[in-house]
Amino acid sequence: MTEPDVPRAAFAPWDRRELPGLFGVVESARRVGNYKWIEMRLFEALGGWVATVPELDVKLVLGRQCYHHAWHAELWNKRLPELREMKTDRLTQPANDEMVAFVDALRDPEAPELTIEKLVGVYRVLLPRKIAAYTFHMNATGKITDAPTIRSLNFVLQDELEDWREGEMLLQSLIHTPEHVERAARRQQELEQLMLRAGGITGPGSLGNPDGTVNAVGDAAESEGVSVG
Amino acid sequence: MKKILPVEELARDSRFVRASIQDAIADPRQAKIAERNTGSAKLEPERPAAGDRARQLMHGIFVGEIQALEGAGRTTFDFDDEEVPFQLKLDMARQCWDESRHCEISVKLSEHMGTGIGEFTEATFLYEAACAPDPLLRLTGVNRALEGLAIDVFNTMKEFGDSSGDPVLAACEDWMLADEGTHVKMGSDWLRRLTENDPERRERALEFQRTVDKLFSLGGFRGETDENPIQLARRFREMAGFSTDEIDELSEVATEAQEEARAAAGLQPSS
């Protein structure tokens, strides 16, 4: 029998969530807008590539994962108005011009012989960067104040991790000569250089800054982010 | 990667053999086959070579699903954010997943029925309907015409599964049938929304759909008589949102296509 009159704390002893978290509303919204933009560019690329890859198993996986990223874009699109951005297109933007250059390069391969190049871009460069940025957001933002974003991040990360594993396995099954290894490494290096210039999928500060701030460099005036340390 | 990928550039492995639908219809052996009195053309277990016909149809479903996947995928990529609404792109991405799943189901069913990839040829007219430069034409050509055909084909195959005592075939076709109804509704919904204030554009899109529907009737392949292997699935089409008038019109188009094919083969018109 329970004791309805006995007061209990609002938080169970094992619930160690704290206020306020590192992100303010503006910073969280800016990042969510970047997420929506990159998810859109990715699902378009996967959809476009379906017709260009001859490997049947790859074709079907790209078709399936195309929807995963579209669904992520939809989640971020729904979150933006809740973060005070009613004109969602305003924040549906790349982090910077370098990110646009990265995406252009990522989506460039078309020929049927270039499946390795297509998959390396997605599974060895972009998805690891997305997983990193999403994980940072989940760990850094307010566990209580930004809980709706965290819930979406959890769903998205589960997809991203499973999709990355599936894509990486496809890639390994396609790489079976030293020349393939070189091609994959060369492609990864080209794209990593571009991603380095972009600073990650939300720009510099995607994984936080050395000084403990979390906003993109140069955006400090716009950010409500709380410094660490 | 360029916008609008021509049909010649669809990527396939070495098992796939491409053949044009015109060559298949104009094949002189077709007239000889048509002269044979083998009874009803419906796909029924008692029909001569029913197993082979069903396997050929399943292979046709498989390659059709690949092209539907490719078409939906291209629609996510070929149009910029300003050209089509965000939600339309999301619907096309969802369709990619569905078509990808249908490919997987079709491969498994092909194995289940004793055939495999490449045993029959691939015609690419489905993809051709899916790469029109106007997104609205894609929606009518693919989501209403092609996916409408898929409703007819899946229902025919489901009934064949029922009548031949193959519950695996019947159940899987029923699942795919449910998805196709969703795709038709998607197409009808976007057609209405995108042409709300543009009746001329709507009429052009519907005209394109009629052209594609006639092509998909394939000289008597689809219709409502015993001479048609694929039967028009009126009930499921109604559930997907086609009006009775639209289904009646399609039935007339199918009859026209059948008579044209008979005339081309030098046969008398059907009674």
Reconstruct the topology from this structure.
The complex is a heterodimer of chains A (229) and B (271).
Chain A: H1 25-50, H2 56-82, H3 88-91, H4 97-106, H5 115-140, H6 147-174, H7 178-198
Helix pairs in contact in A: 1-2, 1-5, 2-6, 4-7, 5-6, 5-7
Chain B: H1 21-26, H2 29-35, H3 50-78, H4 86-113, H5 125-130, H6 135-163, H7 167-194, H8 199-217, E1 222-223, E2 230-231, H9 234-239, H10 244-264
Parallel strand pairs in B: 1-2
Mind explaining what this structure looks like?
The complex is a heterodimer of chains A (229) and B (271). With 229 residues, chain A is an all-alpha fold. Chain A has one domain: Heme Oxygenase, Chain A (Up-down Bundle), CATH 1.20.910. Chain A has seven helices and no strands. Chain A has helices spanning 25-50, 56-82, 88-91, 97-106, 115-140, 147-174, 178-198. In chain A, helix 4 (97-106) runs antiparallel to helix 7, helix 5 packs antiparallel against helix 6 (147-174) and helix 5 (115-140) crosses helix 7. The longest helix of chain A is centred in the C-terminal third of the chain and has 28 residues, at 147-174. Chain A is elongated. Residues 217-229 of chain A have low confidence and may be disordered. Chain B is an all-alpha fold and 271 residues long. Chain B has one domain (42-263): Up-down Bundle (Ferritin), CATH 1.20.1260.10. Chain B is 66% helix and 1% strand. Chain B contains ten helices and two strands. Chain B has helices spanning 21-26, 29-35, 50-78, 86-113, 125-130, 135-163, 167-194, 199-217, 234-239, 244-264, and strands at residues 222-223, 230-231. In chain B, helix 6 runs antiparallel to helix 7 (167-194). The longest helix of chain B has 29 residues, at 50-78. The interface between A and B is medium-sized, with 36 and 34 residues.
